[in-house]
Amino acid sequence: MTDVNGTPPQGGWTRFVTARPRLSLLVALLLTALAVVAGSGVADRMGSGGWEDPDAQSTYATKALEREFPASQPNLLLLVDSGGASVDDPSVAAEAKRLAARLADERGVTGVGSYWQSGAATLKARDGHQALIAARLTGDETAVGETLDRLAPSFRGTHGPVEVEIGGPVAVRHEMQSIIQEDLTRAELIALPVTLVLLVMVFGSAVAALLPLGVGIVAILGTNAVLRGLTELTDVSVFAMNLTTALGLGLAIDYALFIVRRYREELATGAEPLAAVGATLRTAGRTVLFSALTVAVSLAAMLLFPQYFLRSFAYAGIAVVLLAAAAALILLPAALVLLGHRVNALDLRRLFRRGAAEPSREGAGWGRLAALVMRRAPVFAVATAVGLVVLGLPFLGVKFGTADDRQLPSSAESHVVQQHIRDGFPGSPGGGLEVLAEGRASAAQYAAYKERIAALPEVTRVEGPLVNGDSAYFTVLPEGEAVDEPAQRLVDDLRAVDAPFDTKVTGTAAVLVDSKQAIADRLPWAAGFIAVVTLFLVFLLTGSVLIPVQAVLLNALSLTAMFGAVVWVFQDGHLSGLLGFTSPGSIETTLPVLMFCVAFGLSMDYGVFLLSRIKEEYDRTGRHQEAVRFGLQRTGGLITAAAVILAVVMVAIGTSRVTNTKMLGLGIALAVLMDAMVVRSLLVPAVMRLTGRATWWAPAPLRRFHERFGLSEEDTARPATTTDGRPDLDPDDPDGHPDPDPDPDSDLGRDKVEARG
Predict the structure, then answer these.
(1) Strand partners, 426
(2) How far apart are CA 453 and CA 430, in angstroms?
(3) Per-residue pLDDT, 719
(4) CA–CA gap between residue 162 and residue 116 (Å, rounded)
(5) pLDDT in the model for residue 732
(6) What does the pLDDT read at residue 238?
(7) CA–CA separation, 219 and 666 (whole Å)
């Protein structure tokens, strides 16, 4: 339908976003400037923890011990090195005692203790040349960080006969936070120019290449402002900043690529700029909206977990996805209306080639690949699926652990201190388990309970009890590492010991056990939420029952290589020298959940792009195989370019010196490349060829539901359908089979496919 001038009527949304394009861009510029101000300093207000379950037994016990027995939970350690002398040398002991007394007088410090006060063997190195001063810094993460910044310069360094280095959990977290901020700045400096070069290679036009980058910058700055506001209401992890940058650039570029590409296609058909924008929003615009919803759903699943580390990524991810989609659907159309045909200006590729590529030939190689895959569909489907499963096998040996100082580079001061403690001190100070006992009890009852826990397997020594009113606590030192399997079993054993009072167990291993349990309890709900909502959204897009199921299963399969690589590289330590990290021998418990939600959402992003173009062509022609071939021809290059650009951003994030961030960046980069280059290019067309015309089947009630509420293109002509809802087939075919698709390598096949350009 057209108006009297031959121009398709513009929908309400198109009129809204294009009515005042200059005003829209000016308002966006002002809002972005406000976001810069509002989001400034956001990283300084973020936390570097959040891996524990706030409702767990270990969290309750930790807070109670902090309150009743501050010295039981030291978070600051001063490693005192006496050089060649003994730590028991009178001059060394005198200086160490002066340092401890000075530390105890500092504001925000409590529970100061040392080897020279207690004589505890666990606080003295085996070689006798190092010993520890322990203390607790009080307050929340921000207050603790400020106290550490104030104290560190005056305590670090040479003091008479001793040299002091600073470690402990607060030093590890503080140093991790500083390194993440520095690494994020470096990653942005790497990613932005490389991304711009890639966009110029994709579009040719320097003007068109700048549009996606602008959308990404708006999304990132807006999300920083949102996160700054959230820090006033709840805890937000500093690690979420990395996701903001990666998704802000990656998704904004994806959406802008899709819209600008479709807009240029419409211009190539002779449409005027305003009409081209309208057609783009009715097709690519709706696809972008559906894509943003599917990504947001995957990220929203992390809100179901209690750890604020995971919830922070949901906050950041949902905000940046919605802002990227809003910028792509509001600001980008306004810019395109103003640019008109100038969107193709400054075509740098013309410096290297003569003439312009024919639009009809664009993506012909992807069309031939799709035809090849569909001719050998069983081979490609089986080989690709088996290969992906094999790549994921290392994940069967995954071991879960906690984030510690080994996340930091080996040269980081707090890592050096903790490594000295691990290697040189007996009993792994700070690695024991604490048992909180609440309720009035006699000395005999405490002694009997102590004997029972001392008799447990994997117990090296039991210290205590220390009593304060109706509360007491015992320190239990396990055999081996602080968080290995025996230590985790010991947590369960301690919790099962009968006692005449209430007991709660905490410590590093107990926090890990509780975190694993919290994730295991909520993981089925999160996975179910993602699956159900994704199935519903893809059904709204396609009207098919089978395609949503295929999408969920194939997306999950595309992540196997990522999970296998995470274990093989980061847990087992392969390539650790090349990539510059120290393997702790385990994977932090929350990381696989985070990586699954992010990578699954990005896979759905690419899946929606491909399926929407296949569906559009199928609605127009009713020919299944040709629709699949056409969809890959039109989006294969686009999806691959988007995946490569996002991978560049994620690899830039993966250059971080913090191991978890490196794992996140490199793992997701691998996942998106595997999804675009293997799953979308090979597995999807092969599976759709095997399922054939049944791919588009839906029962009558669901067909009617989709006709009323589903995604449909106003300007797409649907083929005639039979009474069961299938496209009407060639009436000259007495068997009711479709006219076979032409060979894409023949002249006829190329003409029929390319005619749709």
Answers:
(1) none
(2) 19
(3) 46
(4) 14
(5) 32
(6) 82
(7) 22
